[in-house]
Amino acid sequence: MINKSQLQNELLTKLGLKNPMQLPCLEKVVINCGAGAGVADKKIIEETVRTLTIISGQKPIVTKAKKAIAGFKIREGDEVGVMVTLRGPKMYNFIEKFVTLALPRIRDFKGLSPKRFDGGGNYTLPLREQVVFPEIPYDSIGHIHGMQITFKINNSDKEKSKVLLETLGMPFADAKELKNG
User: Fold this and answer.
1) Closest of 157, 162, 149, 167 to residue 120, by C-alpha
2) Distance CA 58, CA 20 (A)
3) C-beta of residue 80 within 8 angstroms of C-beta of residue 34
4) How far apart are CA 49 and CA 122, in angstroms?
């Protein structure tokens, strides 16, 4: 389990700050799965809800289309995705499980890209398939779907956000490694 006071002390020394109020703080983790194919087959939405419940330990919500998109045969109000927001101890438990169990199972993993920070200091990580989580049995999967995991950090400095995530155990790759690999 991640100790918040130990994390705070480590960040203070790494960032060279004196006031703990200046530290970047992880507010929430949002896991989002687009399931547009669920418009034609409701079982896809149900399976995605079941998968995210197992992964996060919390019941996700089903998101609906805000606008109709004729090209994708989606009407306003159709169920097109599933998302869950984690805060507090569940968030830290998910991060620990993600870093220690799921990331090592990604094929050809060379580290996380440091280029995925947005202007607000948040980090979004795409995953191609849900089978990287060990609690999802491979033979029970009806269809493989990807997901986006967003780490919402109350800080607009990308470097401070990166130091926070590295302190939590996230393995970032060097930009040189990503170009060569």
Assistant:
1) 157
2) 30
3) yes
4) 25
Domain with residues 27-113+120-155, CATH architecture: 2-Layer Sandwich (3.30)
**In the numeric block, which tokens belong to residue 85?**
């927001």
Q: Which amino acid is at 114?
A: P
The two tokens of residue 129 are 């398939």
Residue 117, beta-bridge partner list: 123
Residue 151: Cβ-neighbour burial (10 angstroms; 0-12, 13-18, 19+)? buried
pLDDT tens string, the chain, 181 residues long: the values are 677 788 888 888 888 888 888 888 999 999 998 876 656 677 888 888 888 998 999 999 998 888 888 877 778 878 788 999 999 999 999 999 999 888 888 888 888 889 999 988 899 999 888 778 888 877 777 777 888 999 999 987 889 999 999 999 899 987 655 555 5
| HSE toward the beta carbon, residue 108, CA cutoff 13 A | 4
| Residue (of 150, 109, 149, 136) closest to 51 by Cα position | 136
Query: Do 27 and 121 contact (CB within 8 A), yes or no?
Result: no
